[in-house]
Amino acid sequence: MDPVTHLSSGLMGGLAARKWFPDGKFLVPACMLAAWIPDVDIFFGDGPEFNLIYHRGISTSFFGTFFLALALAGLYKLVSRRTPFVKIAALFYALALTHVWLDLITTYGTQILAPFSNHRFALDGAFIIDPLFTLTALALIVAAWLIKKRRHAIALIGMAWFFAYPLANMGVGAVLQTVYAHRLDAEGIAYDHVHVTPDALSPRFWKVVVTAGPDYLLDTMDLFGDREPAAPLRVKRADKAFLRKLGEQESMFATYAWFTKWPYVEETDTPKGRRLVFHDLRFTSTNPVLAWYYRGKRQPFTLTAQLDNSGRLAAWSYEGGIRTQDNTGTGGSGTGLEEKIQ
């Protein structure tokens, strides 16, 4: 989830907790820090592959947030000595876990069991930036700040909002999944599984990913009604075993196989072999808003491979959500992929 939503959960939590911490100094700023601190891992990145593996890793797990909360509580005691350590540590841990929840409800997911498991859990309760979700939270914060007599009650309602809205979205998504499956059945389209998740400007737009044999179908459901519904986008599913095989030459491909949820591939022949462009449908959309935004731009989390005529990896590049990398292959340096394949 975006930083504004994380910080607003800390601010809301601080306003709600002031009644229980009458002697707490700088309580609200400390709560905002507690709600943000699991994202501290962004300062320790060392390239795109490191970011894929460790962002939303141990610092956003049940285990990691516990120790972050203890450390933050220890620092807070230096500022507010009369505040009981266990009590403030419990508050900070609750707010850090709220951060974990807000990451968990996005399709990006988070490794809540790290370091004991690197499985990335996701509940699909909100798009990573949700204006309705965040603006409603900010409006409740303003109301709590202005209406002092009702501040505690409003702040508690605000904290409930951070859980109620995603849970409601999960319920709507389950209904839409059934509706879309019935639509496919009525049209006689064979499929294996239908998955519906919030998309940009949800709850209006919803992303639909259909597993259909060797392909994925990508579609958008508009709750305001599709005036001219287009045919779903059909893409070829990527073979994760093949990605892991390429990972024997360059570890980024094995990491990508682990990271992606719905990987697909675009293949083209070149004079020197084949060019493979891998994407993840989590970061692809037929939503009109995102389609407009990414028009003419490269999609994030795109991994490109150039294979020579023998099928070996000759060059590769990666377009990440934050960072990019361009390489001539297995450990080489120099020209980069785009020049290499010309």
TrEMBL record:
Segments passing through the bilayer: 53-76, 88-108, 128-147, 154-176
InterPro entries assigned to the protein according to its UniProt record, in alphabetical order: Transcription_regulator (IPR053170), YdjM-like (IPR007404)
Lineage: Bacteria, Pseudomonadati, Thermodesulfobacteriota, Desulfovibrionia, Desulfovibrionales
Protein name stated in the entry: Metal-dependent hydrolase
A Pfam short name: YdjM
Statement: the UniProt record of this protein carries the keyword Acetylation: no
The species this protein was found in: Pseudodesulfovibrio methanolicus
Keyword Electron transport attributed: no
Keywords, comma-separated and alphabetical: Hydrolase, Membrane, Transmembrane, Transmembrane helix
Gene Ontology molecular function terms on file: hydrolase activity
